[in-house]
Design goal:
Helices cover 39% and strands 16% of the residues. By secondary structure, it is α+β, with helices and mostly antiparallel strands. The protein folds into three domains: 326 residues, FAD/NAD(P)-binding domain (3-Layer(bba) Sandwich), CATH 3.50.50.60; 53 residues, no CATH class; 112 residues, no CATH class. The relative contact order is 0.11. The strands form four sheets. Strands 1, 2, 3, 4, 5, 6, 7, 8 and 16 form a nine-stranded mixed sheet that branches. Strands 14-15-17-18 form a four-stranded antiparallel sheet.
Length: 617
């Protein structure tokens, strides 16, 4: 046997003989957060003996200790629906009539007790025991005492992949372009002057949560900026969440991987664990660094708040090449963009429940990889508890988080529907329909094209240089007109034009874009001096319009300079611009005089990352 464990940040392996296990179980669940609690409960409900370890004194994860008991997207169905119904009844016993995390806490403990789960709080897994490629248990620190626990199936539900990181599996963090993960958040609940309840739960900047100094400083700054804003607004603070909301952590190489392209182009796996439901929102505003296809969806087609029905592959929770171990929660096998869509509370509950069902079947049948279990049996049980399908009828829809708005979104539009869409202020569905239709759609657009901006944007996204004159005109006469139809994340039309110039343009376009980036007079343009852009929350101090045009122009110049062999020339120009007084002026202008705020940190990091991308081959 071999023991893999983490020590001082390094993965080590040593031979182990004659292990004495202090406890044993069918299913060992490490982490009792949003996914882990439901994984343990459903595995025990299906007849497995379950031991659960939790590092904190409380269970429930972000919906409880992060004080986010409400739901954004995510699919309906599953055991959590009954928990929520019972918790709403318990809410009546608390003062104020709010949604209380403690009610949900009580309900989870009730289920844990009902199903006789052995819950060990204040406990950490120190290492994983393997017999060949199969995980057979862990060494754990349980309230200060080391114990060995044997298991048939081991679930890593730590959300950060702490257990899988100890194993011989590749892990990843952040998007490919710059290694940056989605920004975190920290929730504060308050009462306004009229006594009405509200909360603040927006982005608090990009930080590596695995760097203790960096994340500690970021949390302090996040608290300080929110408290300052709330006090200025005469709001009475009720509570501050003890845990921050981390939207994206480690991911790993699984037997299958969910890519955001699979979601956008509706690729379905052979075996689906369950269906999730969300838009593809990484949060953060440095869209200029994103992948081109993601930009096509978010920036150029303005489809940011389109909700997708997401088929999560069963193999995405199974570490590649290993048996007896799998993950439940947001640390699974996917890319940075699809991870933004598979992280909602409701889907975390349901992923946990479905994983629990699968491991119970595996333990009962002595199959140590859930890909080998009877899939029909799995489907029957998952559907019995309504944990598999969800309620979304279409592959895509404009779907509000509160469920009051639902409109099917189609990308198989007729010619008449496409032209009608392109001539409206919400052309996104028509633009994307053209994009996925390819050359045939491009020729039809050219036959109708008479310099209309939306037509030019659609043609540019399809790589047609006939669109360049109109795109250049849009950049030359830039303004802050934006598409409509996507709530507050509508995109600027000029930003879309800049993005496309960076793909299709020539040396003259670098000069055109340089006026936005290198000419300090650009920041004196009156359109940037609005108290706040209409697409940004009132509590955020940011020159958002300038930020978007500036960052897209920077990345467009970088792309063109590399393509045209002018990398060295523009590296010198950017290094000069991004250092010293000019750097401080840019940061100060975009953050509206608050360089230590999340917006100030965001532009500062963008400047550094842009240089790294330009230097890279």
């Amino acid at each position: 046997m071999k023991l893999s464990y983490l020590e001082n940040g390094k993965q080590l392996t040593e031979e182990v003989k004659n292990i004495n296990f202090d406890m044993e179980c069918d299913v060992l669940c490490i982490g009792m957060g949003a996914a882990g609690a439901y994984a343990a409960i459903s595995a025990a409900r299906e007849g497995a003996s379950v031991i659960a370890l939790e590092r904190d004194e409380n269970i429930g994860g972000m919906p409880i200790t992060g004080m986010v008991p409400t739901f954004y997207y995510g699919e309906v169905g599953g055991t959590f629906e009954k928990v929520e119904k019972n918790a709403i009844e318990l809410d009546k016993f608390f003062e104020g009539g709010y949604i209380h995390t403690e009610s949900r806490h009580c309900e989870l403990f009730r289920l844990i007790s009902t199903h006789k789960i052995k819950l060990l709080c204040s406990s950490l897994a120190l290492g994983v025991y393997f017999d060949g490629k199969r995980a057979i248990g862990v060494r754990a620190l349980i309230r200060g005492e080391q114990k060995n626990i044997a298991s048939k199936m081991l679930i890593d539900a730590t959300s950060e992949g702490h257990i899988i990181s100890m194993c011989p599996v590749k892990t990843y963090f952040g998007r490919i372009a710059d290694g940056k993960a989605a920004p975190f958040t920290n929730r504060i609940d308050y009462l306004d002057e009229d006594g009405f309840y509200g909360y603040y739960n927006d982005d608090d900047g990009y930080r590596n949560q695995y760097d203790p100094v960096e994340i500690s400083k970021s949390i302090i700054n996040a608290h300080a900026s929110k408290l300052e804003f709330l006090m200025k607004e005469n709001k009475e603070i009720i509570s501050v969440a003890p845990n921050i909301g981390v939207r994206e952590g480690k991911r790993f190489e699984g037997e299958e991987m969910l890519s955001y392209k699979d979601i956008l182009f509706m690729k379905k796996p052979q075996k689906t664990l369950l269906y999730c439901r969300s838009d593809l929102d990484r949060h953060g505003r440095d869209l200029a660094i994103d992948d081109e296809i993601y930009q096509n969806w978010w920036v150029i087609s303005n489809l940011s708040t389109v909700t997708a029905k997401i088929a999560l592959p069963m193999g995405a929770v199974v570490p590649k090449g290993l048996d007896g171990i799998l993950s439940a929660g947001r640390c699974i096998s996917l890319d940075s963009y699809s991870s933004s869509a598979v992280r909602m509370n409701r889907d975390m509950f349901r992923i946990g429940e479905c994983v629990g069902i699968a491991v119970a079947i595996a333990a009962k049948s002595n199959k140590y990889n859930i890909l080998d279990i009877d899939y029909d049996e799995y489907l029957m049980i998952a559907r019995k508890y309504s944990a598999f399908d969800g309620a979304m009828k279409d592959d895509f829809a404009f779907d509000s988080p509160n469920g009051k708005l639902y409109r099917s979104v189609r990308f198989d539009l007729t010619d008449d529907e496409i032209f009608k869409g392109l001539n409206s202020e919400s052309p996104g569905e028509a633009i994307w329909s053209c994009y996925i239709s390819g050359e045939k759609a491009a020729e039809k657009l050219l036959n109708e094209y008479d310099g209309q901006l939306h037509y030019a944007i659609a043609l540019g996204m399809m790589g047609r240089k006939e669109a360049l004159p109109r795109l250049r005109e849009e950049v030359r006469n830039r303004n802050l007109d934006y598409f409509v139809g996507c709530r507050r994340s509508n995109q600027y039309k000029t930003a879309a034009a800049i993005c496309l110039l960076g793909r299709l343009g020539n040396e003259n376009d670098i000069e055109l874009l340089s006026t936005i980036v290198f000419d300090s007079r650009e920041r004196k343009n009156p359109m940037y001096s609005m108290p706040n852009a209409p697409l940004v929350y009132a509590s955020e101090r940011m020159a958002y319009g300038y930020y978007q045009l500036f960052t897209h122009a920077v990345m467009a110049i970088i792309k063109l300079s590399k393509k045209l062999g002018k990398k060295a020339e523009y590296l010198d120009k950017f290094q000069e611009l991004f250092t010293g007084d000019s750097r401080n002026e840019i940061i100060d202008f975009i953050s509206r005089g608050t360089p230590e705020s999340a917006s100030g940190q965001e532009i500062s990091e963008f400047l550094d990352n842009a240089l790294k991308i330009l230097k890279a081959e």
